[in-house]
Every structure is written in structure tokens, then in C-alpha cells.
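Q: How would the C-alpha cells look for this protein?
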Amino acid sequence: MIKIFKILLLIFFGLVCNLSSAISDDNKIKIGLLIPLTGNDKKIGDQIIKSTRMALQDINTDKIEIYPKDTNSNPTKTLSSAKEFKEMGIKIVIGPVFYKNIEYLDEVKEITFLSFTNKTIELPNNIISAGVNASSQLSAIKKFIKMNDIEKTIFLTPKLGYEDEIKKNLKQSKIKISKHYIYNTEPTKLTAQIEKITNYKIRKQNLEDEIKRVKNSDLIDKERQLEKLKKRYTIGNVNFDSIIISDFDESLKSVITSFLYTDVSPKKKYIITFNQWFDKSLLNEKTIQPIYYPSINKKNFEDFENKFIQQYNEFPNHLSLLSYDLIGLIYYLSIKSGLTNIDSIFKNKNSFKGKIGIFNIENNKINHKLNFYQVDKGEIKKIF
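A: Here is the predicted structure in C-alpha cell form.
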């Protein structure tokens, strides 16, 4: 453990040696916050500001100055605010929150943006994807699959606009997938597609044929066999051991319920999803358990959540924890001489440790070394 800590320190100081222009003449580290402060997403922006205040309190320094500016969740307004940062001489900005708002930011090449987006496709060179991306999640899922000797896996992605992101990262992960399905989230179409994936009609017909055969037989234990068959929904196996579903919230629950309807139970097949951020509503859905998913360090998340609640009397969104870590990252990179050559820092391979866990920086994105969890019997259990 001491050795790992020393390595992390060396990494930090190695990064620091490459740094210098986000520090102003008065030795203040100026950081922009490009977040929604008006409109429907105002609460997200407000909580990000609160979490940055917490980070400054914990770092306990007067060297950092935070300058929030509004995006109104609008690409044009985002660009306008970014140009104001440029005029102020700010070189490093946390934000924007949403992928759609990075559209014009390549016009402000002088600034490096640590965006909350977890999308990594077609990012401008000055945008760092800091969200918990598909690559990080698939890396943890791959480890889980190997641990459990899972041989046949199918992958399901909703038709919601991020299919290309998933396909690219799935290919790079080299997880062996039997088949990748893109599904429609509209309930009737979803049910029909799941029936097709699981060969439900054939398996249902197999059961009806078997009931008919037993009824017409001279078997001594005919009644007992018929009673057993009545408790079943289908006869026949499906051609997979596990299902990975890259979906969330109620849509995820609908997909798993559709599999239950077609007699594919989480108790017999592994149901693996993407990061659910410890969604407590899943704890009450015992019919669709167990569920497995990668996520950040749960204890750190709960410690941060409790501290946030004590300080502000409200629950934080998950972006709050990410913004807290990003403030810490920028500070540690600035300890010695400030932020110079910021572009090369985020393109080269580097690592650091935050509240979320261990981060790896490479090729304009931050990958997260995630833990893995099981939701079963109303509890969340850590697997690794």
C-alpha cells in the first residue's frame, strides 16, 4: 500500500513539473466553472458549485479562485461564456455538463475543458471527457465475466442516440459478445424484440406440446407430471449465459421485466448493467434481482453524500462528487509551478487518486478504475 502511495505521489509531482499558465500574476489558480445556472438544469449547476466549495474547504487553501459562468444548457450560450473565460485569461475550465454543449468549444482552443460528459467520440482536442465512460465500465464488466467463466454473453443497447459510443468501446474492450442488439424502448416493441431474442414463442409452444403429450399418455405419474408442467412457462434453453444491458432507471427495469416475462430469470442468467450510481429504487425490485454493475467506490460516495447533506441539507447529484475530484486534480497539478502544457498532460498516460477512485488519463479522456457490485435481496454487495 505504501509503495502504491509513493507511486501516486511520483505521478503527481511528475505531472506538476510539466505545468504553469493557469496561475495568475498574484499566484492564484483561476478555474472556470461552465455549468447551467439558469433554466431547467439550474439545480445541477447549483450543486456543482456547492461541491467545489466543499473541495476548497477540504484542500484548505486560498490559492484557488473559482469563476462560475452560465451555459443555460445551450451550446451558443456555452460558447459565449467560454469566450469570457478566454478574455479573463483562464486556461482551465470544469464543464460543460452536457455533451451537446461542447459543439462550438473548439473555437476557444486556448482553454482546456474538463467536461462532465462520458461520451468520447468526436471530441475536440481541447475537451477532456471526465465522466464515467463506457470504456471504464466495460473494463470492469470484462473482469467480472472472466471471474465467473461466463462463455456466452449478449449485449443490449437502447436506441437513444449513443449506440455508436457503445459499439466503439465494446469493440475496443474485446469482450466476447454472441450478439449485440439495439432495442426500441417503446414497451410493445421492446416486448416483441425480447421474445424474439429468447425464442419465447418456440419455447412456449414446446411447453404446450409437452402438456398435450403427457395428457394423452398412459404414464403412471401423469397427474404429477402435469402439475409440474403447469408451474412452468416454457421448455427449452436460451443460447446465452449472461445479458449486458446498457440502460438505466425505469427503462432498465422494463427490459429485465421483459426477460422475466419470457421465462429468463436473473437467478439463472447473469443480468449485468452499466453504472447505476447505487440507485436505491433497485433495492425494492426483488423480482429482477440479482443485478450486477460496475460503479465508483461506494464508501467514498456515501461519505461524500453524508457530508454534503450535513452541510447543505440536500442530496447531491453524482456530478457533484466528480466536480469535487476535478478541483482536487487541478490543485495537485498546480502545486509546484502552475499549469503549462496542459494539452500534453491530458494526452499522456498519467494516474491519480480521488474520492471516486483511481483515474487514468490518456487520449483526452479520464478512465476510472471501477469497483463491481451485486444488488440482491435488497442489499448492495461489493464483489471487487
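The radius of gyration is 25 Å.

Residues 347 and 363 are 4 Å apart (CA to CA).

Upvote if useful.
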